[in-house]
């Protein structure tokens, strides 16, 4: 599974890299970016929690 951040929606709240730093990080322009490789199995739960925690629903996780 992979994570995707819609950079038109992200308001840079910083929650996702806090909840799952293995998958999400903030870019220089304060928008979140997700790794473009498969989410490691051991952090998949955290990645999904980050997705659920996003206040503007900017994160998608799918195959
Ligand atoms: Fe942006 Fe949502 Fe993460 S607003 S910083 S994608 S939690």
Automatic annotation (TrEMBL):
Domain of life: Bacteria
Residue ranges of domain 4Fe-4S ferredoxin-type in the record: 1-29
Entry keyword set: Electron transport, Iron, Iron-sulfur, Metal-binding, Transport
SUPFAM superfamilies (UniProt xref): 4Fe-4S ferredoxins (SSF54862)
Job description of the protein: Ferredoxins are iron-sulfur proteins that transfer electrons in a wide variety of metabolic reactions.
Protein name (record): Ferredoxin
Organism: Terrisporobacter mayombei
């Amino acid at each position: 599974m992979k994570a995707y951040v819609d950079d038109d929606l992200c308001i840079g709240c910083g929650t996702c890299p806090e909840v799952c730093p293995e998958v999400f990080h903030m870019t220089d322009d304060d928008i979140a970016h997700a790794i473009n490789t498969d989410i490691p199995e051991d952090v998949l739960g955290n990645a999904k929690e980050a997705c659920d925690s996003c206040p503007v629903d900017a994160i998608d996780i799918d195959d």
